[in-house]
Design a protein that fits this description.
about 80 residues; 3 helices
Length: about 80
């Protein structure tokens, strides 16, 4: 994934997972978890289509560890905020 796209996608993920989840149709579970499928759908619906592989790349390579998957890989959350 190109670095600029990765940065823009990471910022969008922060927006929908930390700052304005309801604005993007997400309902966060306890401790800020959201189903990965819902996050991917919200991204696509709002013009920021992301594949599961791209999402995984962002989670694994973000230097500040802003996001994490649960043990099953079915849910994601923002680690900060």
């Amino acid at each position: 994934m190109e670095e600029r796209r990765k940065t823009n996608t990471s910022k969008f993920l922060s927006l929908i997972l930390r700052h304005q989840p309801a604005e993007y149709g997400l309902v966060l579970e306890a401790n800020g978890w959201a189903p990965v499928a819902d996050v991917l759908n919200a991204c696509t619906k709002h013009g920021h289509a992301v594949t599961w592989n791209e999402l995984e790349d962002i989670v694994e390579t973000n230097e500040k560890k802003r996001f994490s998957f649960d043990e099953s890989g079915d849910r994601i959350r923002a680690n900060q905020g």
